[in-house]
TrEMBL record:
InterPro entries: P-loop_NTPase, RapZ-like, RapZ-like_N, RapZ_C
Pfam families to which the protein is assigned, alphabetical: PapZ_C (PF22740), RapZ-like_N (PF03668)
Name the UniProt record assigns to this protein: UPF0042 nucleotide-binding protein
Signal peptide location: none
Keywords: ATP-binding, GTP-binding, Nucleotide-binding
Residues involved in GTP binding: D57, A58, R59, S60
Domain spans labelled RapZ-like N-terminal: 1-162
Domain RapZ C-terminal: 169-286
This protein's record includes keyword ATP-binding: yes
Entry-linked SUPFAM superfamilies: P-loop containing nucleoside triphosphate hydrolases
Amino-acid positions noted as binding ATP in the UniProt annotation, renumbered to this chain: G8, I9, S10, G11, S12, G13, K14, S15
Length: 287
């Protein structure tokens, strides 16, 4: 059976992700205590189910420590198990909770543990939840949903689900350093040292996917040199990442605004590695 466990920080989009998986044909269960995971899988297997998605979060705090062992057991039984961990920057989470006017799930539990009137702040709940889920974050693919729309998150998850049948998915992502490094990046390359098309008024409104910007960067020897260095690095170490039984490898390319140079590099690298692995690409600021 293909099993996808979706977890992460409250407010980072688990409900949206679970809905996307349901649309993709998965039988979905939300907020399942890890102690019930094995029984659920056995029941669904008897029913002949092929795909199962389960959301697990900090509300099941007492049994979270058992999740890694449960995942190992499921793999030993021959199941194809993937873990998807959603996270976001604290300021993004605060904005989302403020917009929805919902309280953090841990605020009720923490208040009960202490006293009904002694509720922790939202920031304290987020910090506590990060500590509780720290050991789980390294179990699978991390997606930073900061600034992502619901539609874009659904699209990204469907792309990742579509790549489940391959040993490793190589994901190239462009971003702007002024908005922060993506939390889900495994490798980060800085291309701000290269001439910036932004300062050419004719190129400013364009992106790294437009022909005038491509011609501008193609003509620079230092661009070709840096591109060759990044290609060589990824080519050299990609077999090691595959041997490490990774499902995903995210290579983030950053420039100042995430519009010209980083987009150009991602487009070129994705095309170059097309035959070496399952390749996906994201342009965070353009998206």
């Amino acid at each position: 059976m293909r099993i996808l466990i979706i977890t992460g920080i409250s407010g980072s989009g688990k409900s949206i992700g679970l809905a996307a998986l349901e649309d993709a044909g998965y039988f979905c269960v939300d907020n399942l205590p890890p102690t019930l995971l094995r029984a659920l899988v056995e029941t669904r297997q008897k029913d002949g189910a092929a795909k199962l998605a389960v959301a697990v979060d900090a509300r099941s705090a007492l049994s979270l420590a058992e999740l890694p062992a449960d995942i190992r057991w499921l793999k030993q039984q021959g199941h194809d198990v993937k873990v998807l961990f959603l996270t976001a920057k604290t300021e993004s989470l605060i904005t989302r909770f403020s917009e929805t006017r919902r309280s953090h799930p841990l605020s009720h539990r923490e208040a009960t543990d202490k006293s009904p009137t002694d509720r922790p702040t939202l920031v304290e709940c987020i910090r506590r939840e990060r500590e509780m889920l720290a050991d789980i974050e390294g179990l699978g693919q991390v997606i930073d949903t900061s600034g992502l729309s619901a539609n874009k998150l659904r699209a990204w998850i469907k792309d990742l689900v579509g790549s489940d049948h391959t040993p490793l998915t190589l994901l190239f992502e462009s971003f702007a350093f002024k908005y922060g490094v993506p939390l889900d990046a495994d490798l980060v390359f800085d291309v701000r040292i290269l001439p910036n098309p932004y300062y050419d008024l004719a190129l400013r409104p364009l992106t790294g996917r437009d022909e005038p910007v491509i011609h501008f960067l193609d003509a620079l020897p230092e661009v070709a040199d840096l591109m060759a260095d990044i290609r060589h690095f990824v080519e050299k170490w990609l077999p090691s990442f595959k041997n490490d039984n990774r499902s995903y490898l995210t290579v983030a390319i950053g420039c100042t605004g995430g519009q010209h140079r980083s987009v150009y590099f991602v487009e070129n690298l994705a095309a170059h590695f097309h035959d070496a692995a399952r390749v996906l690409k994201r342009h965070r600021e353009l998206d």
